[in-house]
Amino acid sequence: MKLQFDVFVKQLSDMHKGRNLKDGYVHSTEFWIINTNNKYCGRISLRHKLNDFLSKHGGHIGYDIIPSERGKGYSTKALSLCLKKAKNIGLTKVLLTCDEDNLPSIKTIESNKGKLKDKLEYNGILTRRYIIKL
Fold first, then answer.
1. What is the DSSP string of 60-112?
2. Is 56 helix (H, G, I), strand (E, B) or coil?
3. Sequence-distant contacts of 15-24: CB under 8 A, at least 24 apart
4. How confident is the model at residue 17 (pLDDT cuts 50, 70, 90)?
5. Do the strands 61-65 and 93-99 form a parallel or antiparallel pair, or are they unpaired?
6. What is the pLDDT of residues 21-45, one digit of tens each?
């Protein structure tokens, strides 16, 4: 079933307000990454708190850049801006995760002062867990 745009936006609004959350979801804020030509380039989500799953594999912040816009610095800049938002909502540190073989994401996180905390295996994939102090 195709999701209607207005329904999608309502779901994002509810998540931002921390209400009507589906099982496994947490209070979060979604930001869209738009370039200077008003083109959608990706998204970044700030999770205001973590559940058990996110504390191991997901973290406080998740981002995606569309394939045609990768390698242009959008994720590094978006993460930098999102860290300021995280501090504004009262977080003092954030957890970010990425797959062991995701070199662009490793670079993005480490460019924003991410310090490798540890590595965990999940579904046969090694996950790197980083902490960024705010």
1. SEEEEE-GGGTTSSHHHHHHHHHHHHHHHTT-SEEEEEEETT-HHHHHHHHHT
2. helix
3. 18/48, 24/51, 24/53
4. confident
5. unpaired
6. 788 888 999 999 999 999 999 999 9
Contact in structure between 83 and 69 (CB atoms under 8 Å): no
Structural domains counted in the chain:
1
* Domain of residue 59, CATH code: 3.40.630.30
* Angle, CA of 39, 43 and 105, to the nearest 5°: 115
- What Rg do the C-alpha atoms of the chain give, in angstroms? 15
Q: What is the pLDDT of residues 101-127, one digit of tens each?
A: 999 999 999 999 999 999 999 889 999
Please list, residue by residue across 22-41, b when 16 or more beta carbons sit within 10 angstroms of its beta carbon and e when fewer do: eeeebbbbbbebeeeeeeeb
Q: What is the DSSP letter of 48?
A: S
In a domain, 19, yes or no: no
